Amino acid sequence: MQTRALRLAGAISICLLTAVAGCRFPDFRRNNRVAASNSSVGDDISRLSNRQIASVQFSLARSLEQQGDSAQAMEAYREVTRNDPRHPLANWRMAVLHDRQANFAKSESLYRLALKADPKSAEIHCDFGYSLYLQKRWAEAEDHLRRSVALQTEHRRAHSNLGLLLAQTERLDEALVEFRRAGCPDAEAHANLAFVLTLNHRWDAARWQYELALAADPNCAAARAGLESLHRIVAKAAPAGGQLTQAAYENPAYIGPAYAGRATYLPALPQGQ
Questions:
Q1: CA 39 to CA 176: how far, in whole Å?
Q2: Domain count along the chain
Q3: Which of 200, 176, 199, 197 is nearest to 188 (CA)?
Q4: In a domain, 201, yes or no
């Protein structure tokens, strides 16, 4: 941990030196000479505000996160908030990293800090909404997802996540609309809805949605694969020594109660964060 912290501190220092030198000496490469001593650069760094330092640190932290180094990214984001405690982007990204570890209590406080500083961020509302969705807090999740699409009408991830939520809460027609707004062709929208219904043991409704998907596009790979998977699921759920009756297949209550709270992940859509 100490070695990692030292590497991180070194990387931040290099970024700060580069930022200062790059601003002060734009002709460095052309002239091929050093235009100031290390002490003068250090003096420039000391004159940077905490907010300017935090901005450089955030760029480094985001780069680490995008490279998949979540642990170092979290440390770097924390360093950002030491210089700028209200930094909305750093608090947002730390919240997302906590979500990925299912640390929802920690992520919620960070999302709220981020939104307090930037209440009109469609991205933050989208990811907070998805976090609440994963916790089955449907009403709160819907509120934030609808705020996201109100702030940015073409926000595909927000429309996708809202479609998931609407499907989970039995508003199927509205879910289809949101999947389409997320950029799905008609066939994929029906296939995505069918996937959620399958997870919730709504097998009759799922089969119907897959058939609608294939009617819209007979070559829809997601619908074909989903329908085959559904048939296997139904076969495994059949009573020992026999097949499901038609009534059982068409009435999921005969098999068991739906579990609409289960979180879903659609491969065709970027739920994100």
A1: 62
A2: 1
A3: 176
A4: yes
pLDDT digits (tens, 9 = 90+) for 20-78: 333 333 343 344 443 444 444 344 445 567 677 878 889 998 899 999 999 999 999 99
In a domain, 247, yes or no: yes
- Domain span holding position 252: 181-273
State both tokens at 198: 């399958």
Residue 266's closest CA among 208, 205, 182?
182
Is residue 131, in this structure, part of any structural domain at all? no
Q: Which two tokens stand for residue 121?
A: 């961020």
For 15, 186, 203, the CA distances from 176, given in Å and listed in that order, are 46, 8, 17
Of the candidates 167, 165, 272, 267, the one whose C-alpha atom is nearest the C-alpha of residue 223 is 267
CA distance 141 to 158: 11
| CA 172/CA 258 separation, integer angstroms | 15
Task: Look up the pTM and report it.
Answer: 0.72
**pLDDT, tens digit, 9 for 90 and up, residues 64-120:** 999 999 999 999 999 999 989 999 999 999 999 999 999 999 999 999 999 999 999
